Predict the 3D structure of the following.
Amino acid sequence: MADPKTSNDPAAGTTSDERPAAANFVHDLAVEHAVQGTFGGRVVTRFPPEPNGFLHIGHAKAITTDFELAREFEGVCNLRFDDTNPETEDTSFVDGIIEDLAWLGYPLEREPLFASDYFGQLVRWAELLVEHGLAYVDDQDGETISEQRGGYGNPGVESPHRDRPVAENLDLFARMQAGEFGEGERVLRAKIDMQHDNMQLRDPIMYRIRDKAHHRTGTTWKMYPTYDWAHGQSDAIEGITHSLCSLEFDAHRALYDWYLEQLRLLDLLPFEAPQQFEFARLELTHTITSKRKLAKLVEDGVVDGWDDPRLPTLRGLRRRGYPAESIRDFCAFIGVGKTNSRHEIELLESFIRTRLNKTALRRMAVLDPLKVVITNWPTDADGAPIVEEVELINNPENADDGVRTAPFSGTLYIEQDDFMADPPPKYYRLTPGREVRLRGGYFVTATGFESDADGNVTEVHVTYDPDTKGGNSSDGRKVKSTMHWVSAAHAVDADVALYERLFSAEVPGAETGDVFDDLDPNSMTVLRGCKLEPELADTAPGEVVQFERLGYFAADPRTPLLFHRTVGLRDEWANIQKRKK
């Protein structure tokens, strides 16, 4: 069922969105660089997703960091696809990422770039490193190479092919590209230092043979560069100034700098060498952001595609009704730091709820319907119940949204849990002898009810006070509960999807080491035959409305009359903050 009902105020439980942004060391660095004239005053960033899946909430932090930095300093942010692994990449992901960026608020102002645009240049530069004795072809397999790298505190073992003559290396490298060797038979490695404390500098692999067609270059290339080789050099080609990465690339920075230094010494850099800076990635409770694991959820049918509303993918969040502005505000609020941390998902939801409280139109929907018959409701000359139109406010937070009317007649639907035959203490909703207010309609008093053989209430009988139209009594008497309703004769049937956390544990996999052990098999419940006020039949695809007293719900972009619960009305983040005090 829906979230427990909050107070009668539809805006109850919301938080203020006037929250200051947290510290952002990347911004502070850019200010310092501007003052010092570093990079000639230029700010050029890049967002480099690999097109092997769709963007998720973690990417949103990287996107806002990259694009907003460039925007603030009147610079440029390139979208550059890191398409160096033909086995997992696809054009559909390219198109989807561009679409997700535009939705988040960053439509492309120029054509996207691709690491594959630079494959030819990267090979020529690699050949130059070979010519200068800075790279060599190794015949050993990957497992042997990995073993010979040693470990922290353990010495590395140099490859027997490390001192091959330059001419032989160039010949073998050319034959790798010509497709003369099979996968795994040979690799190109940088020649740095097999005893270095930083494992990334122990002769890293630059090229691997891959007999796979590439989504853009087809079968032109028989070998593909590693990320570490392609990354910094692509940055250099594009004139990137601030190459922003997540913290796990901290150990890679020395290699990033080493490659660029060799190109500088060879007088090959078209611009001043870019600099890499690492920041903490975004992690949320009850959430995973590994694209490999998200892909497994999709492939195994645990979720219904990459846009399943339970996933943290941007397309999943959009389908669930998350406003893009709220995601950007959330990313600004948590800031950009150098210490990994995990934020409560309730904090993100508070940003969603705050914005929707201001923008979402109010509507009435009954998710678990119980029939209510007004026994003294008037009829016309033919005995048919009179139908009245009652006026309802569209959004108390925005007077410009105006009002609407909804039909009110002698048979209505209310929520099953809005009536109890034998209520507990402090139950203020409908019960025999109790008077309540129907939102925008009348005061009604329960006089009786019908039950089935199992004792389940199937119908409630009430009387109404005709002097309370609009929900106010002429004598000033008060009631303790205001309930939503839908006219039975005018109700629109719909399906409503309710969601719990996809992962029950705050940190999935923390106990067993396998995140999938914490999957909640009951994370989605679809209610059929929900009763909606007629106005909801015209809800635009993707539009989010507030079902009064129940939460915020988004109309599915593809399936008519399917609504997804975005967030409930209760401010769980505020409750968490109270418990911490």
